[in-house]
């Protein structure tokens, strides 16, 4: 069983990556913050007493469930908006706080531009993946979860994780071929 200090360290460790996953899925910083905050609160409420080794897949399961819930609510909300002739106002001002930090590596402007273009294309491509492929890719490639942990986080079989991950990687390779 983890202590409250271990729990705080764990949440601090996963916070930024969980936010980035939610941001890729929602496209809006405010919505992503809400998703991650809800996931963290629910995780602490339900699983704080579980052994620390189990936290990572459990947290990402909750985070992915919150992202799925957000997609469902947004679909319903947009359906009602279209019925009543209302526009879509997501309130995203386009500011990315991660991009505002100085680069400690001191890269050249040309390489920085190329990396930024690649990052933007990768983000756009990941957003265009089906949700389950997006989840499998982010949990496996970005979070470094193994197949079994990803299956727990996504509430599916290991075979499904492998299939979704394979399809996501192939789709991203095809789109990002020019950056190789």
From TrEMBL:
Domain of life: Bacteria
Gene Ontology annotations of biological process type: DNA-templated transcription initiation
Similarity comment: family membership: Belongs to the sigma-70 factor family. ECF subfamily.
Protein name: RNA polymerase sigma factor
Pfam family, one: Sigma70_r4_2
EC number(s) reported in the record: 2.7.7.6
Stretches assigned to the RNA polymerase sigma factor 70 region 4 type domain: 120-172
Keywords: Nucleotidyltransferase, Sigma factor, Transcription, Transcription regulation, Transferase
GO MF assignments: DNA binding; DNA-directed RNA polymerase activity; sigma factor activity
């Amino acid at each position: 069983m983890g202590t409250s200090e271990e729990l705080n360290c764990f949440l601090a460790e996963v916070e930024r990556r969980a936010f980035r996953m939610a941001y890729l899925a929602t496209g809006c910083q405010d919505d992503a913050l809400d998703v991650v905050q809800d996931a963290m609160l629910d995780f602490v409420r339900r699983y704080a007493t579980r052994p620390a080794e189990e936290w990572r897949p459990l947290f990402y399961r909750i985070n992915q469930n919150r992202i799925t819930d957000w997609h469902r609510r947004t679909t319903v909300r947009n359906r009602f908006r279209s019925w009543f002739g209302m526009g879509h106002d997501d309130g995203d001002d386009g500011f990315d706080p991660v991009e505002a930090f100085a680069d400690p590596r001191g890269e050249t402007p040309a390489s920085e531009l190329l990396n930024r273009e690649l990052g933007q294309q990768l983000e756009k491509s990941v957003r265009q993946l089906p949700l389950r492929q997006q989840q499998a890719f982010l949990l496996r490639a970005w979070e470094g979860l193994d197949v079994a942990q990803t299956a727990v986080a996504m509430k599916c079989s290991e075979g499904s994780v492998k299939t979704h991950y394979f399809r996501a990687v192939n789709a991203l390779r095809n789109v990002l071929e020019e950056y190789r």
